[in-house]
């Protein structure tokens, strides 16, 4: 994600979280009032009537929070069935209780009474849906979790180039390593022959600059080694400096 959209995205997520939380609180409060009226009209009074709505709407909140934990911990689909069952059962009982206290048979009044528990469940569902997408994006962008990149044109061209007998690369690949030397040991003619074996085989005498860079010798020693190599190279070309 580009840096231009990162800040607006965070602001949008914060606004969604605030709106979902506000809608959930208002919906649960309205549902509590309806269930309280229901319990008061059906033989409960005082603290018992006040406590009765909690044992209904609590199952909606607990069920959806269980679904949140299932999402965070990546539960299997079968393990989420119990959380869904608790949520839907609590929602059904809450809707029945909120609608049941309405007097009369007006459809609009009953629909209005059924809105609070449905709105509470919908708000939590929307919040969980957004959270699910955010978690998926975070997992995809996390280091070490991205799938391996398919070989593109550059990779294919590099493989094809490696498969061909490219002169420069073949020469570097077939070049034997110079034997390990200490700083005090001088560079011998044998060292130069081993280092520039591929060049000599192609009839090319290495330049003074190449001899100095690869054998780490001075100008005079490089010139002497170049003259020695020039005698060994068949049909050698004139060396440059």
Annotate the secondary structure layout.
Elements lengths: L2 H38 L6 H5 L2 H20 L7 H20 L6 H35 L11 H11 L3 H8 L14 H7 L1 H5 L6 H8 L3 H14 L9
Helix pairs in contact: 1-4, 1-5, 3-4, 3-5, 4-5, 10-11
Molecular structure report:
This protein has 241 residues and is mainly alpha-helical. It has helices at 3-40, 47-51, 54-73, 81-100, 107-141, 153-163, 167-174, 189-195, 197-201, 208-215, 219-232. Helix 1 (3-40) crosses helix 4, helix 4 runs antiparallel to helix 5 (107-141) and helix 10 (208-215) packs across helix 11.
Concise structural overview:
The chain is 71% helix and 0% strand. By secondary structure, the protein is mostly helical.
Features:
11 helices; mainly alpha; 241 residues
Helical percentage: over 70%
Low-confidence stretches: 145-162, 164-174, 178-182
| β-sheet strand percentage | under 5%
Nearest-angstrom radius of gyration? 40 Å
Order of secondary-structure elements = HHHHHHHHHHH
Let me know the largest β-sheet. none
- The number of helical segments is 11
Which structural category do the helix and sheet elements fall into?
mainly alpha
Backbone shape: rod-shaped
Mean pLDDT: 77
| Distance between the first and last residues' Cα | 53 Å
DSSP strand count: 0
